[in-house]
Amino acid sequence: MIIALTGTPGTGKTSICALLEMHYGIIDLNALIKKDGLHTGEDELRGSLVVDIDALQARVDELVKDETATVIIEGHLSHLLTGIDALIVLRTRPDVLAQRLANRGYPQEKVQENMEAEALDVILVEAVERHERVYEVETTLTTPDDVAREIWQMIQSIEFGDLAQLKGYLPGRFDWSEEVFG
Ligand SMILES: Nc1ncnc2c1ncn2[C@@H]1O[C@H](COP(=O)(O)OP(=O)(O)O)[C@@H](O)[C@H]1O
Ligand SMILES: [Mg+2]
Question: What's the pTM?
Fold first, then answer.
């Protein structure tokens, strides 16, 4: 089973995967992109790498090809990949997200950009356009431990095909547009 874990930067993907790595194989896309040079260079204006998504897809396909256990593919681009059985989108209320990114030392512009993307459901929209099985999990008022446990349970339900347990995670529960845009 291949599970993708996506979400705006700061929603908690890396922290949660660190707690789940004893249970699942984890593919950290940011690390993989850097390690294997799966980019076409740096976007100097945005201070980020321009990812070669085809090369990334090919590399991920190679890594999961002979995998029989469940693997989590973690990264804010993971929902752009194909060959995913289910997708989990982490969500954080924009004011809390902004605080986390500021603590991480992001410049104000980047904090604002990510806050707006979160309020406008940018990743969620991209996700549901591409995948059938999409679930949203909130990380605003919980701890990484709580969410890791929740996701472990969700993956059990996904593996067993227990859709009733997943109903509460179907997309469309969050509307934070007022928070950012008034
Ligand atoms: N419920 C939660 N789930 C995940 N992270 C949380 C939660 N509450 C607070 N955090 C904090 O938010 C930050 C998330 O950072 P990180 O895991 O690097 O996010 P991402 O990989 O999505 O960019 C960490 O400092 C983490 O401790
Ligand atoms: Mg991360």
Answer: 0.97
